[in-house]
Structure formats: C-alpha cells, structure tokens
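> forwarded from #structure-qc
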C-alpha cells in the first residue's frame, strides 16, 4: 500500500484533481437525502471531495476522518475544525451518530477481507436509523476500458478485488444495511497511457507479480510497443453503491 503521508502533497494532482472530485461528490450526493443531519466522510484523504460535500449541503454537518496525518492535515486546511484522525476499523464515534457515511476510494485499498468487514460494520454502527452508507466499488475493474492497454494486460495475475460490488453488498447486508441505490461517475483525468501503465506495473499496482518476476518485463515490452505512448486511453467509470439502515 502507498505511504499516504508521503503521497499527500501530490495526491490531488495525480488523481484527477478538482474535475474528478466534482464528479465523485456529485455521484455521492445523488444517493444521500437532502435534509439536515450529520455526514462522516471516512478516509477523506486531502478533503478535496469532502469540501464539496459540505459546500453542496449546508444543512449537513460534515466531518472528515483519515488515519494518515499528512492527508488529515491537508483536509483540515480545507475544512477547519471538521477533520479528525481515525482508524476506519475502530471509529471514535458513538453508535448512531451520523445520518450518512461515505467511503470514496477506501475499500479497494484493504487487502484483508476481515478488515473490509470491520470497516463496513463500523460504518453501519455509527449510522442512525434511516441513515445511508455510500461507497465506491469495483475500482480496479473500472480501469479495464477495453483499450489496447487492457488487451496487453488481459492475462496478468490479478489481486482479488476487496471492493467487489457483490461482496460489499453481502457485507452490508450482514451489518443490517440493505441496498438503497447505485450510480456511477467518470474518473476524469484517470485514463491510462502505455507509459504511465509501465510505471504502475513496475510499482506492483493492479497485479500479483512480485518485483523481479520476468513477466513484468514481458508486459512492459508489449506496452512499450503500443502507439501513442503518452496518450491517455478512455477514462474509467467508477461505480457507487448506497445502503440504508432500516
């Protein structure tokens, strides 16, 4: 996993910046009832999405939470007094505190299924009755857009997706949260180019290949042979699911 303290300073610029944040916030807000209450944006990162949630819904008291101090500091600059350090597996909030909880780009980072279960259970615990949990799902699959890059990488060994929609839905049900809606948004600025994919592959992203595995160079050689090395292919379309506490 990335060191998000070190990544904080460049995170927004390398993840689509404000356009992607606007698209993500719009999708999330479309699944949350427009009424007064409290919202927890868990794993809020730099607060680039959290700030938009708060600005769009003045009647919502928005709290951001992240476990990485570097990320939390950046978020706190955007939302003074509204950001806390917190472990998503053990939230520092009483039961039934929030009317909505959001996790945007969190579950795909958690390789241990037991921890994913713990996170979903904690989100359910801090929700009030009638509250909504909203999360992104299927992040890795969204990047397979049918491009020539995807054709090259089709037979790579893949990591099991921690945020597979069917699995997240099953965990939510186990925590008493039946489905309550879904949507999607375009990950603006996130389309992969052959050159950027080579760099990601060598970092060990989206694959089970270990450093030094000769297949890495086989894949990178095929990627390097593709045309338009710096032209991004189509942007991914990220899925979002909502679950409501009866």
């Amino acid at each position: 996993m990335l060191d998000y303290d070190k990544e904080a300073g460049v995170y927004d610029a390398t993840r689509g910046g404000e356009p992607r944040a606007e698209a993500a916030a719009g999708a999330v807000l479309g699944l949350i009832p427009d009424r007064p209450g409290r919202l927890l944006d868990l794993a809020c990162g730099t607060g680039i999405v959290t700030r938009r949630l708060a600005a769009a819904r003045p009647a919502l008291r928005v709290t951001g939470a992240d476990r990485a101090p570097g990320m939390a500091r950046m978020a706190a600059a955007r939302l003074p007094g509204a950001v806390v350090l917190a472990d998503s597996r053990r939230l520092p909030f009483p039961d039934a505190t929030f009317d909505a909880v959001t996790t945007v780009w969190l579950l795909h980072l958690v390789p241990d299924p037991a921890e994913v279960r713990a996170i979903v259970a904690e989100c359910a615990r801090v929700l009030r009755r009638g509250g909504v949990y909203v999360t992104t799902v299927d992040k890795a699959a969204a990047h397979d857009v049918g491009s020539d890059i995807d054709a090259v990488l089709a037979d790579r060994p893949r990591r099991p997706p921690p945020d597979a929609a069917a699995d997240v839905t099953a965990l939510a049900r186990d925590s008493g949260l039946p489905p309550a809606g879904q949507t999607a948004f375009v990950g603006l600025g996130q389309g992969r180019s052959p050159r950027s994919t080579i760099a990601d592959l060598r970092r060990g992203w989206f694959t089970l290949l270990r450093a030094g595995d000769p297949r890495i160079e086989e894949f990178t050689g095929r990627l390097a042979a593709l045309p338009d090395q710096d032209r991004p292919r189509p942007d991914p379309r990220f899925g979002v699911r909502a679950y409501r506490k009866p």
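QC bot note: The chain has one domain: 4-143+160-191+234-244. Strands lie at 37-42, 60-66, 83-85, 98-103, 127-137, 179-186, 237-244.
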